[in-house]
Structures are given as C-alpha cells and as structure tokens.
Amino acid sequence: MIEYEPVIGMEVHVELQTKSKMFCGCAVDFGGEPNTRCCPVCLGLPGSLPVVNERAIELMTKSAVALGCSIAPRCIFHRKNYYYPDMPKNYQISQYDNPIGVDGYVEIFAGGKGKKIAIRRVHMEEDAGKLLHVEGNRSLVDYNRAGTPLMEIVTMNPPPTGYDQIESAEEAREYLQRLRQILLYLGVSDCKMEEGSMRCEPNISIKPKGQVEFGTKTEIKNLNSFRAVYMGVDYELKRQEKVLREGGTIVQETRRWDDSRGVTASMRSKEFEQQYRYFPEPDLVPMVFDDEFTGRLRAEIPELPIARLRRFVSDYGITEADAEVLTDSLELAEFYDACAKRSKDPKAVANWLTGEFLRLVNASGTAVADTKITPDGLCDLLDLIDKGTINRNIAKNVFEEMFNTGKSAGEIVKDKGLEQVTDTSAIEAAIDAVIAAHPKEVERFKAGEDRLLGFFVGQIMRETKGKANPGMINELLKGKLGS
After folding, report:
1. Residue 58 CA, distance from chain mean position
2. HSE, side-chain direction, 13 A CA sphere, residue 313
3. 196: closest CA among 12, 11, 15?
4. Which CATH topology does 424-481 take?
5. What is the pTM of this model?
6. Which of 395, 409, 403, 321 lies closest to 370 in space, CA to CA?
7. Across all residues in the chain, what is the average pLDDT?
8. Which residues pair with 207 in a beta bridge?
9. Backbone φ and ψ of 141, nearest 5°
10. Buried (b) or exposed (e) across 123-138, using 16+ Cβ within 10 A?
C-alpha cells in the first residue's frame, strides 16, 4: 500500500494596528455602521490617488526583522487583478516578486520536538471588504474593512537546508500559536482571530512518501481559530488520502471549513498565479529601506517568547511547563521577570503566578497589565511567608484581598490581625482542646490510623483560625499523641 506524506503551507493574514488605512486616511476600527469608513481612495474611484501609510510599513518591517527575515533594500507595490464583490477596485494593491521580507522562520515545539518552520516571504497588501449573506439568496457588502493594512506571512515548501516544514495538523496549529504570540509581543496587531484581524489559509497536498514532486493542493479559506486550523487541516489530509486511494484525483480549489458538519466544502476553483495579471502599481513610488531605518526598528523588538522561555528555565530553574505559561503574554513574562529578579525563590514566584494569580485574573476577566497586584507587592507577600509572619493558607486570603483592593500585604495582615501564631503555649493549648474533644479519634490514631494526623491538624488550624504555624503544630501534636 502506498504511504502518503503531507505538504502543508501556511498563509497568515494579519491586520496591522494602525489608526488609518493602508493608502488613505479612513479610520481603522472593528465593526460600526456598514460603509461609513470609506472614501474615494479605498473605493478606487476615478481620480483618487493612494498614499502609503508609513506606520504600517514600520510595523510590517519590524515583524519581518523579528522573524529573522532579510529586508529588501528596495521594493515596490503591484496590482493583483481579480474580480470579487468585496474588492471595490477590482484589484488589490499587494507585492509580488519583491516583498519587504524574505527567508525567515518561526520556531515551534510540536510533539515535544523543536523545529524551525521556514518563512518564504512577508509582504504588505490591503484588506478586502466583508460580505454579509442574508435571507433571500442575497449578499450585502460592507467596505469599512477595505484598505486596512494587511501583512501576509507565507511559509516555504520545500524548506532550505537547516529549516523545516509543517507536517501535521498539530504542527500547523502550533505554528499559528507561536506566530501569534510573537506578533502580540511586538504589538503590531491585536491578532483577534474572532474579529478577523488574524486569519489563516492553509495550503494542503499529499504525495507518495519520498516523491519529490508535490501533489495538487487545495486551500482552506479564512480559518479564524486554532481549533478550526487543526480540524480543517486534519480533515483535508484524510479527505485527500481517501480520494487518491479510491482512484480519484485532487482538484486544485479553494475550500471552506464547515464547523457544524466538521468537513471542508468546495467554494470555487483555485486561481493560478498567472490569472492575477500582476503588474507594478503605477500610482506608488518604490520604497527604499536603509540600515538606519531597519536598525531603529530592530532596537524596538523585545526579547521574544522562545528566547525568554529558555532564559527563564536556565536562569530561574523553573520547569519548561511553567515557563510556557509565564511567557504566554509579554505582560505576564515581564511581571514574572521583575518578581524573580528580586525574590530569593523564583520557583515560588512561578507557582504563585501560574496558580493563584492567573486563577484570579481569569475569574475576574482582568488583563494582567490592569491588575492591582504589583511585582513588589507579590514579593512583599512572599517575604512575610518566609519570615513566618503568615502561613501559606493565610497568604492566599491576603493575596486575594491585595488583588481586589490594591492594599499591601503588610497592611492587610496588620489590619486583620493575621500574624501567624508561633507561641508554643498558645498552640499547645489548642492541641489539648482538640485532643480532649476527640477521644475516639485519639484512640484510633494510637491504634495505627496514621491518616488521622491530618484530621487533628485541620481541627487545630480551625481552633487557631488558621493562624498557627503548621510546622509547629505537627511537631507538638506528634509529641502529645506519642507518635
């Protein structure tokens, strides 16, 4: 039986975080009254002339640099000619044979294995409008989005020596997650897939294992979630293999993901490159990129997620799993970094942030940057635990109040009288009271039911309102019970 192997390419479209559109001054915002953010330029009316949005070029160049691309010293825009109702000009201003960035990569860790996924090009174009399908077999078009700055990032198949290609649905999802994380660190886009500011279009084919020539590819349009990417790619790989094993042929076409049925469905035949009739955009001058420009943007790039993850593991001794969580967003990574540099125990900081902190963040719907907890505040709380002023159980309650009120740990502990009880006589009195109240449990413990030790500790903590030192309780209790 023939064994097939996949060839998966990823085209990712990202709307850049600018205030105005790519070639005109119309505002860029999600939603709004249809066709209220349009002008003669973005509608392509006769006599209108485009002007390049400098901020969009900066954001895209910064992205290309961060992805390890070579930046073209000189590049131009092209017209990509095709008719579709959401394209008001009947052409799209894009880039063809001379994109801004080439030959980059995204590092992934799918299936426990590190891979460098090769990127062929990073180029700029303008977004299309949006079609709204309504009852009566009609479609309405909203051109508010038309002309929004759009960055396209395309992977390379086959990859050059030393780089890899995507080989499974899992890797496709991982690639998109890692790419989104990088772009969020850079602040070039909000990458809200549910709003369409990041969209993925996988190109999928299969071929007999070892065959050099690629099979016929299909493209899945506008996948807007990580789950849809995984499900769509996985389904399409299985569908193509089934077609070939049954003696059929794969048609080059554009397909869509039908989430309700869990299948891909044909939309239209896939255009070939020649059909777009690319030619240089006559209304825009060439762009020239010098070392000063790219150097300035390079200096603005923060430490990126994978590099930061590796540093957290090596410098702070935390697990890779914790480092993955802590580097998920730039805000959380910087919060942890600030805490870990001050704290005596970076592992304890990681435990608090991945546990109690994120629990409260998720429950409240608060962004990490907007929380009332500060790195110094968390470190002060941990200092109180280390000094024995409060125990961990009390600390959880204190932390929650810090999160809700912004008060310092010391202030909350003092106002509520939460200092840990370390007075031996006071703890012994509580132990004696608990032992006297539970004679049957004492007899069972002495008869060999060691698990009852936890019961006694719990009762003593309740007697002391949770403020007794747990270590002292255990030591004194064992002496009292004769164990």
Report:
1. 22
2. 14
3. 15
4. Arc Repressor Mutant, subunit A (1.10.10)
5. 0.86
6. 403
7. 90
8. 5
9. -120, 135
10. bbbbbbbeeeeeeeee
Q: Cα separation of 125 and 94, whole Å?
A: 4
Residue-level length of the chain: 483
Token digits for 130? 């949006």
Q: Is the pLDDT of residue 396 over 60?
A: yes
Of the pLDDT bands very low, low, confident and very high (cuts 50, 70, 90), residue 232 is: very high
What is residue 273's DSSP assignment?
Answer: G
How confident is the model at residue 482, as a pLDDT?
Answer: 67
Three-state SS for 407? coil
Q: What is the pLDDT of residues 358-395, one digit of tens each?
A: 999 999 999 999 999 999 999 999 999 888 788 888 89
The DSSP 8-state label assigned to residue 126 in this structure reads E
Region of 399 on the Ramachandran plot (φ > 0 left; ψ -120 to 50 alpha; else beta) = alpha
**Residue 424: pLDDT above 80?**
no
pLDDT at 483 over 70: no
Per-residue pLDDT at 169 = 96
For CA atoms 293, 23, 199, 34, the dihedral sign is positive
Angle between helices 375-386 and 392-405 (to 10 degrees): 160
DSSP state of 166: B
Q: Is residue 10 within 8 Å of 202, Cβ to Cβ?
A: yes
Task: Enter the DSSP assignment of 167.
Answer: -
Instruction: Delimit the domains of the chain by residue range.
Output: 4-297, 303-416, 424-481
Cβ atoms < 10 Å from Cβ of 430: 22
- Is the predicted pLDDT of residue 309 greater than 60, yes or no? yes
Report the alpha-carbon distance of residue 39 to residue 41 in Å, rounded: 5
DSSP string, 11-66: EEEEE---SB-SSS--B--SS-STT-S--HHHHT-TT------HHHHHHHHHHHHH
